[in-house]
């Protein structure tokens, strides 16, 4: 009969907690990001370009300034037109310059885009065999999608912080920023990325083709962005679009950030915004974990 | 450990009526039952799509069986999947290491997934890297590794939890002969070091012959024959002795047929074909018998049945039209590509 000649180093407890392996798997994903400076920089270049080009080029407040228009024959003094322009800006965007308005929308944009990629990595793990390896270890099934979601949360919040710093450097209105406002903003972004990355992980659970996954991403990313108040105030959108904007969680995250960072009047009150986003995040992440139990064990 | 005692051997894997059907119809594994004993090397032999990997995936709880069950290391694969996963190691057919991480990082990740505390895993990782001779490459990213190095890393990953039972799915697929021999030397060394039971699948018959204590030939989801390599070979009817006698005329069949161990004698002109067990012992006797009767032989040859013949006998000689699933084919192609990189 076979002798059991294991070397004696078994004086330890194996971690059997249902969450063991969560940090190991999350850190694996994060390593691909922070150990590859090129990818890290590229993921920040895009929002920077958007902020610098889009935000600065669409200098809407200049259109409404006294130097750019006048009514022939009336000769209204430039100061009055300037004042008028400021009021129009304020009543439209809730702040006197479009750049600040857009910068806050950009925080939602970067968060949304990072969340979308979390599904992609599960497809790659399946294709490269890594997923099967993890399924053969004692890691709980639910931990696998949780690590993807957690990775998206960490990444997007760091990216949002950098985008916010760039925006402030480029001249975003900081007169209303408070610690409380920052905390509120980041909680809103947290809830948004939690919900969306759970959604995209869920869509990828059974998928073997990354083409399908990227098609889904391409189909959803711009509509989610434009059918929200991230780029343009919802109140001025056509009526048929308004209900879509009102159910889009991106709108609520942006609404919270705008109220809390710029002091702008909101689409809804803060309590409702948080309630809506919270319900979105909790329901999708719960469904995601339940589905992964079902679908990851074939 | 809860194991049944049977024929004086500890049963480490006990499979009963295990079945897996995909999409409700095609049965990839069909009512398979067998046992694996502790400490042995047990091999699954069969063509592509025979159900080898599906069976291993069920035993390692990656796939759920459609019906039937199995006990692995004393745990039920359906009721206690976490306990099964904690007590077995898997070296999959594919290279599953994360290519963006280093060999060392991959091993530590494996240990983390088994819940082994870092204080233990750091030392264990070093020990394993040394054992599979990847110490020098440990700090390099896996995408710079050769096929043999990747396979050794997979081996180390499979061993990090010190399993009692190690599953090896095509451990030498796509490797050249030198690397194959080297990988087997590692496996043998590790088996001795840790006193493991090995459960493997392979395509290479000479590998199965030299390594396995017992073999199961599987095709179309069913086990066709099970036994030691020698038992399987003998099941074909034993060795073949061919004799050519110079003198024609008299029929010697009758004399040869009564010799011990001889099963069958056929005469073809002056050539006799003798089917027998223990060919080495029978051949001298035949020579003696013929000489005593005053005949002379011009030729004698002894052929032992090879595992190739056994394999073809049971799985048929027909070329196969049916293929494994797309997913499986892609996986094999990827493995081959990376093995040869």
Note the topology:
The complex is a heterodimer of chains A (298) and B (341).
Chain A: H1 22-34, H2 37-57, H3 60-63, H4 78-93, H5 98-116, H6 118-127, H7 130-135, H8 143-169, H9 179-204, H10 210-226, H11 242-247, H12 249-262, H13 270-296
Chain B: E1 5-6, E2 9-22, E3 26-37, E4 41-45, H1 52-59, E5 67-72, E6 75-76, H2 81-87, E7 88-91, H3 103-113, H4 118-131, H5 147-159, E8 165-169, H6 177-194, E9 197-202, H7 205-211, E10 214-219, E11 222-227, H8 229-234, E12 239-245, H9 253-257, E13 262-268, E14 271-276, H10 279-292, E15 297-303, H11 307-315, H12 326-339
Parallel strand pairs in B: 4-9, 4-10, 7-8, 8-9
Antiparallel strand pairs in B: 1-2, 2-3, 2-5, 5-6, 10-11, 12-14, 12-15, 13-14
Task: Provide a descriptive summary of the structure in words.
The complex is a heterodimer of chains A (298) and B (341). Chain A is mostly helical and 298 residues long. Chain A has two domains: 22-57 and 96-296, no CATH class; 59-93, no CATH class. Chain A has helices at 22-34, 37-57, 60-63, 78-93, 98-116, 118-127, 130-135, 143-169, 179-204, 210-226, 242-247, 249-262, 270-296. The radius of gyration of chain A is 23 Å and the shape is elongated. Chain B is α/β, with parallel strands linked by helices. Chain B folds into two domains: 5-232 and 317-339, 3-Layer(aba) Sandwich (Rossmann fold), CATH 3.40.50; 237-304, Alpha-Beta Plaits, CATH 3.30.70. In chain B, helix 3 packs parallel to helix 5. In chain B, 42% of the residues are buried. The interface between A and B is large, with 40 and 45 residues.
Give a nutshell description of this structure.
The complex is a heterodimer of chains A (298) and B (341). By secondary structure, chain A is mostly helical.
Give the ordered list of helices and strands of chain A.
HHHHHHHHHHHHH
Structural class call of chain B reads alpha/beta
Give the proportion of residues in helices of chain B: 25-40%
Biggest interface, CB < 8 A? A-B, 40 and 45 residues
SSE run of chain B: EEEEHEEHEHHHEHEHEEHEHEEHEHH
Number of helices of chain B: 12
DSSP, total strands of chain B: 15
Distance between the termini of chain A: 37 Å
What name is given to the CATH topology of the largest domain in chain B?
Rossmann fold
Number of strands of chain A: 0
């Amino acid at each position: 009969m076979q002798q059991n000649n294991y070397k004696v180093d078994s004086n330890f407890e194996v971690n059997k907690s249902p969450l063991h392996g969560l940090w190991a798997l999350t850190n694996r994903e994060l390593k691909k990001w922070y150990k590859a400076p090129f990818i890290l920089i590229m993921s920040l270049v895009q929002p920077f370009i958007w902020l610098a080009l889009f935000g600065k080029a669409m200098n809407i407040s200049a259109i409404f300034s006294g130097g750019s228009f006048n009514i022939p024959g009336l000769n209204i003094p430039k100061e009055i037109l300037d004042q008028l322009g400021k009021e129009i800006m304020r009543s439209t965007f809730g702040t006197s310059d479009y750049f600040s308005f857009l910068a806050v929308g950009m925080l939602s944009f970067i968060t949304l885009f990072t969340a979308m990629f979390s599904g992609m990595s599960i497809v790659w793990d399946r294709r490269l065999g890594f997923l099967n390896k993890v399924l053969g270890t004692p890691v709980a099934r639910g931990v696998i999608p949780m690590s993807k979601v957690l990775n998206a949360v960490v990444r997007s919040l760091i990216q949002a912080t950098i985008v916010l710093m760039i925006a402030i450097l480029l001249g975003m209105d900081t007169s209303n920023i408070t610690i409380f406002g920052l905390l509120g903003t980041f909680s809103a972004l947290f809830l948004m990325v939690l919900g969306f990355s759970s959604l995209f992980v869920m869509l990828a659970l059974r998928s073997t083709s990354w083409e399908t996954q990227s098609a889904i991403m391409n189909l959803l990313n711009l509509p989610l962005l434009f059918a929200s108040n991230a780029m343009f105030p919802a109140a001025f959108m056509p009526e048929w679009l308004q209900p879509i904007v009102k159910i889009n969680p991106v709108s609520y995250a942006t609404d919270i950030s705008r109220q809390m960072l710029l002091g702008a009047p909101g689409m809804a009150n803060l309590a409702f915004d948080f309630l809506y986003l919270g319900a979105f995040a909790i329901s999708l992440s719960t469904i995601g974990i339940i589905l992964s139990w079902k679908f990851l064990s074939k | 450990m809860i194991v049944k005692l049977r024929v004086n051997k500890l049963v480490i894997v006990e499979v009963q009526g295990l079945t897996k059907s995909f999409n409700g119809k095609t049965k990839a594994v069909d009512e398979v039952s067998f046992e694996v004993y502790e400490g042995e090397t047990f091999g699954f032999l069969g063509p592509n799509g025979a159900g080898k990997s599906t069976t291993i995936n069920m035993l390692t709880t990656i796939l759920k069986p459609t019906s039937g069950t199995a006990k692995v290391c004393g745990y039920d694969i359906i009721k206690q999947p976490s306990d099964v996963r904690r007590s077995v190691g898997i070296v999959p057919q594919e290279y599953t290491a994360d290519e963006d991480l280093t060999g060392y990082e991959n091993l530590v990740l494996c240990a983390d997934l088994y819940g082994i505390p870092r204080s233990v895993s750091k030392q264990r990782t070093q020990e394993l890297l040394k054992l599979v001779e990847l110490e020098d490459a440990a700090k390099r990213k896996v995408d710079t590794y050769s096929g043999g190095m990747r396979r050794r890393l997979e081996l180390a990953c499979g061993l990090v939890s010190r399993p009692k039972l190690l599953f090896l799915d095509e451990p030498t697929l796509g490797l050249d002969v030198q690397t194959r021999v080297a990988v087997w030397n590692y496996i043998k060394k590790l088996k001795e070091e840790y006193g493991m039971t090995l459960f493997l699948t392979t395509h290479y018959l000479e590998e199965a012959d030299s390594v396995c204590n017992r073999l199961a030939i599987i095709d179309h989801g069913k086990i066709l024959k099970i036994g030691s390599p020698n038992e399987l070979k003998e099941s074909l009817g034993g060795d073949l002795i061919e004799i050519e006698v110079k003198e024609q005329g008299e029929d010697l069949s009758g004399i040869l047929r009564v010799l011990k161990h001889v099963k069958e004698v056929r005469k073809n002109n002056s050539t006799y074909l003798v089917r027998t067990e223990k060919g080495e012992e029978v051949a001298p006797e035949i020579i003696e018998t013929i000489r005593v009767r005053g005949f002379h032989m011009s030729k004698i040859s002894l052929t032992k049945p090879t595992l190739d013949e056994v394999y073809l006998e049971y799985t048929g000689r027909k070329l196969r039209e049916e293929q494994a699933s797309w997913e499986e084919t892609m996986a094999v192609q990827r493995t081959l590509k990376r093995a040869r990189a």
